[in-house]
Amino acid sequence: MEETQPVPRVGVVLFVLKGKSVLLGRRRASIGESTFALPGGHLEFGESFEECGARELMEETGLVMGKADFLTVTNKVFLDKSKPCHYVIIFLRAVLADPNQVPQNPEPDKCDGWDWYDWDNLPQPLFSTLDEMGGLAVPFNLTKRSE
Ligand code: 8DG
Ligand code: MG
Ligand code: MG
Fold this sequence. Notes:
Elements: E1 9-18, E2 21-27, E3 36-37, E4 40-42, H1 49-61, E5 65-78, E6 85-96, E7 111-118, H2 128-132, H3 138-141
Parallel strand pairs: 1-6
Antiparallel strand pairs: 1-2, 1-4, 2-3, 2-7, 5-6
The protein binds 8-OXO-2'-deoxyguanosine-5'-triphosphate and magnesium ion (2 copies).
């Protein structure tokens, strides 16, 4: 059978903010195994970034996304894997529709569970792409809407 050529994929990832806290979960996945990462996943055909973010948040945490806006984009090649991957990642900043809603873990094979972590005391290790953003402060520098 003919080998398919690898292609870049598009991901949408969410900084879900509540006051000075951000929602993170420890990954169970070949990319970033055991590291703390943001909710998010692959953009599906025909979706807007917001639709993708809201769908992934619901699938992964059961939470309903409220207002969201665009933060930044990264272009990342993961070469250290047996199967190299290339992702264009759209980062959104979002709040919950109901700030009191509690995260669930409907995909326990993909994540150990979700929790809120204080921005000044983030868990380690963080998923490499978050570390590399250097400005993990990014969402809070633009934080007005999340208050
Ligand atoms: P899906 O099947 O639900 O569509 O996808 P998924 O299983 O939820 O995808 P994912 O691995 O969670 O996210 C897609 C890619 O996005 C991931 O393999 C690498 C990239 N990515 C980053 N940073 C982050 C991050 O902080 N969180 C998540 N979830 N993905 C990230 O570069
Ligand atoms: Mg997903
Ligand atoms: Mg995911």
